[in-house]
């Protein structure tokens, strides 16, 4: 049985609290069960040096965990002088995902900085971050349109992210920590609301999984993404 008798194809309770950070142009507290990630979007009227004069903008992301987001305190990465390899990989994933549904030319010569801070971790922090980050980005670009900075919204697509894996031989959606740590395979899916694939990260632990098992996992992910996109749309009103 899954924790709290959750069905294999069921998401954890999901909630999006928009405006969680009132000073940011866009913000969302992304809640997946006991995982909580604060996502903010900040508009910066400049671009990275390598983009200056090219007539297009940029969307980038930073990701971090609070020391007691996990069961034992983890050291702040700033005290180590640089982000860990895992942190760098996750923030690049967030940035890539959001740029895949953003017209950077329409954004103009400015950038939107996405900050994803994990307040509490119980599995699926990167997927909760991406899903909440899209909502924060969407609010920030809507603000640019409302302020007559842009004529139209450069975010042309909707996306969300979810995990799925094989636990005790069973395909399961949206793994929490107790499942993730014993999974025979786990994967993170970033998909658009119309089924487009942005990125898939999949790993088998002890032995390769079959194509049939991967198909089952992928099917669960598509179902979960559809539900998440509906919740995003409801949150935006």
Automatic annotation (TrEMBL):
EC numbers, comma separated: 2.7.7.56
Catalysed reactions, as listed in the record: tRNA(n+1) + phosphate = tRNA(n) + a ribonucleoside 5'-diphosphate
A Pfam family annotated for this UniProt entry: RNase_PH
BP terms from Gene Ontology: rRNA 3'-end processing; rRNA catabolic process; tRNA processing
Family annotation (InterPro entries): ExoRNase_PH_dom1, ExoRNase_PH_dom2, ExoRNase_PH_dom2_sf, PNPase/RNase_PH_dom_sf, Ribosomal_Su5_D2-typ_SF, RNase_PH, RNase_PH_bac-type, RNase_PH_CS
SUPFAM superfamilies reported for this sequence: Ribonuclease PH domain 2-like (SSF55666), Ribosomal protein S5 domain 2-like (SSF54211)
UniProt-recorded Gene Ontology molecular function terms: 3'-5'-RNA exonuclease activity; tRNA binding; tRNA nucleotidyltransferase activity
Residue span, Exoribonuclease phosphorolytic domain: 11-140, 159-224
Keywords attached to this entry: Nucleotidyltransferase, RNA-binding, rRNA processing, Transferase, tRNA processing, tRNA-binding
Main EC class the enzyme belongs to: transferase
Top-level taxonomic group: Bacteria
Sites where the protein binds phosphate: 86, 124-126
Similarity comment text for this entry: Belongs to the RNase PH family.
General function of this protein: Phosphorolytic 3'-5' exoribonuclease that plays an important role in tRNA 3'-end maturation. Removes nucleotide residues following the 3'-CCA terminus of tRNAs; can also add nucleotides to the ends of RNA molecules by using nucleoside diphosphates as substrates, but this may not be physiologically important. Probably plays a role in initiation of 16S rRNA degradation (leading to ribosome degradation) during starvation.
NCBIfam families for the chain: RNasePH
Subunit record text: Homohexameric ring arranged as a trimer of dimers.
The protein's name in its UniProt record: Ribonuclease PH
Organism, as annotated: Marinicauda pacifica
């Amino acid at each position: 049985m899954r924790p709290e008798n959750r069905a294999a194809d069921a998401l954890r309770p999901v909630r999006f609290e928009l405006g969680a950070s009132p000073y940011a142009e866009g913000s969302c507290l992304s809640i997946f069960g006991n995982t909580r990630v604060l996502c903010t979007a900040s508009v910066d009227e400049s671009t990275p040096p390598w983009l200056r004069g090219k007539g297009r903008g940029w969307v980038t992301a930073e990701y971090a965990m609070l020391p007691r987001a996990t069961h034992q305190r983890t050291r702040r990465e700033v005290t180590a002088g640089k982000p860990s390899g895992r942190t760098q990989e996750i923030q690049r994933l967030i940035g890539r995902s959001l740029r895949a549904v953003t017209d950077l030319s329409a954004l103009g010569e400015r950038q939107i900085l996405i900050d994803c801070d994990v307040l509490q971790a119980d599995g699926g922090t990167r997927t909760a971050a991406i899903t909440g980050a899209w909502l924060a980005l969407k609010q920030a670009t809507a603000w640019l349109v409302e302020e007559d900075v842009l004529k139209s919204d450069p975010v042309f697509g909707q996306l969300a992210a979810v995990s799925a894996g094989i636990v005790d031989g069973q395909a399961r959606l949206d793994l929490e920590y107790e499942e993730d740590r014993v999974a025979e395979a786990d994967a993170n899916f970033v998909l658009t609301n119309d089924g487009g694939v942005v990125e898939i990260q999949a790993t088998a632990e002890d032995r390769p999984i079959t194509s049939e098992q991967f198909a089952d996992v992928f099917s669960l992910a598509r179902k979960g993404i559809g539900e998440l996109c509906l919740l995003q749309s409801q949150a935006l009103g």
